[in-house]
Amino acid sequence: QARRETLLYLDGVSKTFDGFKAINGLSLVVARGEMRAIIGPNGAGKTTMMDIITGKTRPDKGDVYFKGDIDLTQHDEADIASMGIGRKFQKPTVFDSHTIEDNLRLAMAGSRSVFATLFHRKSSAEAATIEEILTTTRLGDKRQMLAADLSHGQKQWLEIGMLLAQDPELLLVDEPVAGMTDAETEETALLLKDIARTRSVVVVEHDMHFVRALGVKVTCLHEGSVLAEGTLDAVSADPRVVEVYLGR
Ligand code: ADP
């Protein structure tokens, strides 16, 4: 697949830490509007891959391109975030003492001050975007609640909403359902599928029930490169995948 036609393109990426190859010739292509699940045992390089995409870690070699021609290895974290790559870490970081709606307004405002954001009049475009995000994140009827009063799962959804407020083309999500109830886990799969109708999403996840619910192409990493790629059924039946999961 040609680099120019893809949203995210990694080719031959390597990263060594103190002589240890955390990423070793990794290639990954994510299309516009695609959701991809990344699996792999601990130490496979999933976090390092996300760090490389978001500019937190610079690879030693290899190509990392966004939207065909943006060389991500030449940009820092703040630049990359502003170019349309949002990253959700495992631990939610929301403003506990603000309402759901104000959290979204603050996220949308980015660098504008808290005071200016909460006291300026919302434009109708802003209001419409917030409504859409409240619907997507299943938080519409909780808009006036303080973030502190949300369940763990709802806080994760709010944080996803805060990333959507910055209108990313690519959303990177790290283990979104860790610690969630079964009902929240199921709802999160639907929520991410809703998001993936208009954006690309890369999800790192250990919970195979959740990956199955996503129903998307799966990439299994091992020792810093792609071990297998395809449907979850095909990947989980691959003897090499079985071996790395059982043999650790
Ligand atoms: P995963 O997220 O799949 O569990 P990681 O990307 O966190 O894997 O780690 C891959 C390997 O790289 C691990 O063996 C880890 O110890 C090593 N590693 C990651 N970051 C660093 C670092 N900053 N310094 C040294 N080793 C690192």
UniProtKB/TrEMBL annotation:
Signal peptide: none annotated. One of its GO terms (molecular function) is ATP binding. The keyword Cell inner membrane does not apply. It comes from the Bacteria. One of its GO terms (cellular component) is plasma membrane. Keywords: ATP-binding, Nucleotide-binding, Transport. Residues 8-248 form the ABC transporter domain. This is ABC transporter ATP-binding protein.
